């Protein structure tokens, strides 16, 4: 089995077969990560460029680790101190990098669609590491991996995504992936943070948190950017935290064996209480561990790898 | 006599008289000498141009064109824009003042007039409403009008200040020319890059809601009623705007409106491709809006069709969607799109379409043309109604290539453009 997609630009339109193949392959890589020497020679000779036009710590670290664990050669490029400041276009930047013979570009960009545009004007394989408010497909995949690891399935799971849906690429990738895999998805947030016509995705929409949480299996809590309050979308962080923050008391509304997730970085005391973040039902740290395995699987499969992980 | 010419064998459309049938057009000294209506053409002679199977229309007028001179002559000059207009079937255009520097004083209007002397078609400058198009201080409208400004507009952005718009409408009464309003409240548009709707939600792009346009359309309607100034609503893009204008047309408040070919041909759904040539302001809207615009054209709510030709260089457009400027070119596709999507799809008749591309803009701007009446300037557009062609931007006369219609197959094209009795373009 190999992937049908050539780039990973988003989870919209990616088939259930492709998603399953990535998640299955990630299981093997997670096993690799547990070894004494957590490294395989799979991508030896492959060069990956991490092109980060937006600050990021964990996603970049996670990709870099995934690349190194696969023995790929990696180079990093970020806006500060780069040619971008001098006004070079994305196309020229990438053509220059490609002229140095590279294979894969991992791109993070604040403009929605930048990875898609890139894929039309370069020869390399493009992996979207987050574009604007559009998609963050590897986050969507690692979230699904983490859910599947705990429940053994995705089909029929009831997932609620809470918070700033409007500006969240994590929400969009989760929605597309989970719906493709047969989960039930609901979104919840104040109306000013719910994008228009979101119900057309095929999700349930709530502005009342308690209603949204009732009977759910999984709560995926989004980070609230404090700028949203300054932009006039919220009266105060205090009120947001009161009505949309996930606290211990609210967990009673959930199904037994519920799970709390957060893509990080967390604002403790705003969208999530410390007690919830550190509870036994929280898989926030396993999400981070799984992120490396899932990104290894994506890099490997997009490099032409097939189902079973090569061993030397 | 100079410029003598006979156009024979075609069908003549003249919305001013309501005639649509076979006729021979006699041109003398740059003017329409006479029209002979008959069943069978029989004119012969050296000056006769055979137009069998063609449609002969009063010259098309595009009242919303952006020439980039002065300021961005790499994107379009007055001459290149006029050559593109001639090739697209237009005998007159009105050019918008958002040049660099903007057309906000009589000297700038004179500059356009002088540069346009060498152009193949007629150019009517539109002056800015406010100095520097900053939305703060009114321009010297009377002097600009005396120099030939046919309208005033801050097109590219709406006039945000309500009191200033009121005063501009009052003051413009002295010139009797319309204020062309680009209806968009910047605070509601909120730096959006495309229509706010399911597609913007899906793509994670900042949306420009319909209300940003509609609220200002409502304001212009109320201010027009208050001030008795003439308001023309540029590029109507939403179903709500069409409905607002429809209501006041019934109430007989003096207000006119235009729609662009892209707003009756394209929807926001296409932006899934992230093609920056689809980034325009006002943005491409939903299917429901497209249908409403077509209905508005058909029932007379929207008076005319204008291209909003907005040239941009390849370098400016080959960017991430967020960073690319708004605008697409339209002079060389407008007629083909109007015939293909309005006439051949039976939304509008020939008379209605020609009215919207010639007679109505002439009336709104109070300029010559718009009819083939005896004694009028011989400004004529000849259409081959059934010519099948494929849009190839490489062949455009425009200096810019930013069109999303490349590769589109259209039916119907302007094949000859005549200005004051001179053939300025012909593919026959």
**Helix-strand topology string of chain A:** HEHEHEHEHEHEEHEHHEHH
Low-confidence stretches of chain B: none
Q: Average pLDDT value of chain B?
A: 96
Strand arrangement across the biggest beta sheet of chain A:
7-6-5-8-9
- Described by the principal axes of the CA atoms, the overall outline of chain A is globular
Top-tier CATH class of the largest domain in chain A: Alpha Beta
What does the radius of gyration of chain B come to? 21 Å
- Architecture of the largest domain in chain B, CATH level 2? Alpha-Beta Barrel
* Total helical elements of chain B: 13
Amount of helix of chain A? 25-40%
In angstroms, what separates the terminal alpha carbons of chain A? 20 Å
Q: What is the number of independent domains of chain A?
A: 2
Q: Major β-sheet of chain A, in short? A: 5 strands, parallel
Helix share of residues of chain B? 25-40%
Mean pLDDT of chain A: 94
Structural Rg of chain A: 19 Å
Structural class of chain B: alpha/beta
Stated plainly, the CATH topology of the largest domain in chain A is called Rossmann fold
Structural class of chain A: alpha/beta
Attribute tags:
heterodimer, A: 312 residues, alpha/beta, Rossmann fold, 2 domains, five-stranded parallel beta sheet, four-stranded parallel beta sheet, 11 helices, 9 strands, B: 428 residues, Urease, subunit C, domain 1, TIM Barrel, nine-stranded mixed beta sheet, 13 helices, 29% helix, 23% strand, globular
